[in-house]
Amino acid sequence: MKVLVLGADGYLGWPTCMNLSRLGYDVIGVDNYLRRTLCLQEDCDPLFAVPNLQQRAELWKQKTGKNIGIEIGDLCDWGFVERIFDHHQPDAVVHYAEQPSAPYSQKDYDTAYLTLHNNLAVTFNVIQAVHAHAPSCHIVKLGTMGEYGTPNIDIEEGWIEIEHKGRQDRFLFPRQASSLYHTTKVMDTDLLWFYVRTWGLRVTDLMQGPVYGLETEENAGDERLYPFFNYDELFGTALNRFMVQAVAGYPLTVYGKGGQTRGYIHLMDTLQCVELSLRHPPKEGEMRIFNQFTETFSVNDLAQMVKKTGNELGLDVKIQHLENPRKEMENHYYNPAHTGLVELGLKPHKLTEQMLTDMMRTIIRYKDGIERQRIFRNVKW
Amino acid sequence: MKVLVLGADGYLGWPTCMNLSRLGYDVIGVDNYLRRTLCLQEDCDPLFAVPNLQQRAELWKQKTGKNIGIEIGDLCDWGFVERIFDHHQPDAVVHYAEQPSAPYSQKDYDTAYLTLHNNLAVTFNVIQAVHAHAPSCHIVKLGTMGEYGTPNIDIEEGWIEIEHKGRQDRFLFPRQASSLYHTTKVMDTDLLWFYVRTWGLRVTDLMQGPVYGLETEENAGDERLYPFFNYDELFGTALNRFMVQAVAGYPLTVYGKGGQTRGYIHLMDTLQCVELSLRHPPKEGEMRIFNQFTETFSVNDLAQMVKKTGNELGLDVKIQHLENPRKEMENHYYNPAHTGLVELGLKPHKLTEQMLTDMMRTIIRYKDGIERQRIFRNVKW
């Protein structure tokens, strides 16, 4: 099965390329290095340097004998998108190619516009290219649990049956996100659902929670194959960031009361979920939605776990509650369903103290590279 | 009260400029003539030529002594948008500045991309400009009843209370539109609702049904002040188009079974609704949604009414059922609420035989200008 991985250079993109390659898929990684460019512009390079895609593909070939094809180009450019879909005739496409940071999307006009334009143009171009050049291609799209926000009712997997004044119908589960970035994902869902109904596309939309982790089966023992690991407020995810702060002796920055609860997932489980989705494609004209996380934690839970593990490693970890720079609920009901991927065969790697200890030991080896001014940026909204 | 009317050149824009000017508002009309350009490109110029905005403003001044300011520029261009908001400091903005045709949005890649890009970029720029330069400015946004689609439950005015597994919350009423154009309006709603919650904007989102009509209080007796009147499948609305077809001896083209039911509104009532919204602004941080139509008709109802009126005027009107080129339900439940604007004071002008007769008499005077090849374009989706 030939798979295009869009956004192949990112935190999830490169591990996905290797995972699918190892499992026998014919993988083409596509990227324009937007994420690297933004990190450079914002002075928030990741914890360690990462080789470029051609170098990574070469390292992978040396290690496994397997080829990962690389296409460098901008997926907002229709000419480029047409060319790669027409040339490769993919059976599936994994679409990660979006600006992925909520604070970046809230920073100023230019970062907001880039997020809106990039994310929607890429999703639109992928839809159009599949329709025109590879109509049975399965689109696996990375959405986010953040699309749902924090409603006062149970969150179902993508859909809800509504009974109203004695009649009923089935709808997309209501979405109301808490950043522009997350709102662009809501808009992606609207766009995909329209074209699924209109053109009979096959789509799997994965509502993913924040991801943590570094090691996967493919990169274990070879840190040159590690993904980007951002620890800054813009591009770093919650748990990864806290671990770096603990190592750097920087108080763990909890926004407001810290009751904000989300569904988290280990990087290895993201890879499982994507591969399970590819192996079990939806029917033509079906938009299948899964909630992709394995456990829920509050920010306070994460801070306490990191503090405990850090202290056991001899670090002096402090927790600091800051005035919340974001507009979000700090104490809320949160009960999202997440059975669909387990039914497909997902075997979760839950967050253990051993896992935290291993990750923090890796980070300690890169301690000298941590630049403290990258950690807190105070983007307000 | 100073009001920017965005999309001032359009079918609704120019009548709105005159109506608000007559009622004492300080009006600035803004447009880049996109609609005219698209009509030219697609060979679907309206039934009669329409003066440009400066000429119309001059005609209006001669007639009433009142000034309507004109700004020509592209609202996708942030520099232009910033300049006009900063310079005029509007109390309100009426936002019509979108590519308004469903079939145009479904024609090909370029027309779809233009629709997506233009509609979202303009809405985004308006939001950003209000926040940066006129934070208490009331945004009156033209949405569409088409955002809701044709669900099997009663359509409420924008919002729905959902009870689910013993808990409840209030959400945007579920939206699932049946063209890319309508889907961009759904995405506009998502974007507005996010920034209303985040920045405390004041927004009135008007879910309007198809509009018909030509004469208003302001242009009566002066056809140089009439709005664009398109009769082609791309830019003409259902009832207007059928009347021209009747006059031209072109069978009324009913798609499929013709049971497609929508909420319709006369142009004069659109003007009332917009002015009532301006006169009664929402609170800061409130997104107020009204369903803006006065009566529901099926396509068959419209065809029968036009046929009857046409026959009485001595025309030989035929009805032809074509294979439906669109993906839509041809028989469906449809019961949308529409009480909010009536509560604000709307006095509906319902569709009467007299009204149809008057409109058809006007069209008959322009009969020689009707180009038959413009009527049916067979855009499929």
Explain how this protein is built:
The structure is a homodimer of 381-residue chains. By secondary structure, chain A is an alpha/beta fold. The first copy, chain A, has one domain: 3-Layer(aba) Sandwich (Rossmann fold), CATH 3.40.50.720. Helix content of chain A is 38%, strand content 19%. Chain A contains twelve helices and 14 strands. In chain A, the strands form four sheets. Chain A has a seven-stranded parallel sheet with strand order 3-2-1-4-5-8-12, with helices on both faces. In chain A, strands 9-11-13 form a three-stranded mixed sheet. In chain A, strand 6 and strand 7 form a beta hairpin. In chain A, helix 10 packs across helix 12. The longest helix of chain A is centred in the N-terminal third of the chain and has 25 residues. Chain A is globular and about 55 Å long. The model of chain A has no long low-confidence stretch (mean pLDDT 97). The interface between A and B is large, with 43 and 43 residues.
In short:
Chain A has helices spanning 13-22, 34-41, 53-64, 78-88, 102-105, 109-133, 180-199, 238-248, 267-279, 299-312, 340-344, 353-365, and strands at residues 2-6, 26-31, 68-72, 92-95, 138-144, 159-164, 167-172, 202-208, 211-212, 252-255, 261-266, 287-292, 295-298, 319-322. With 381 residues, the first copy, chain A, is an alpha/beta fold.
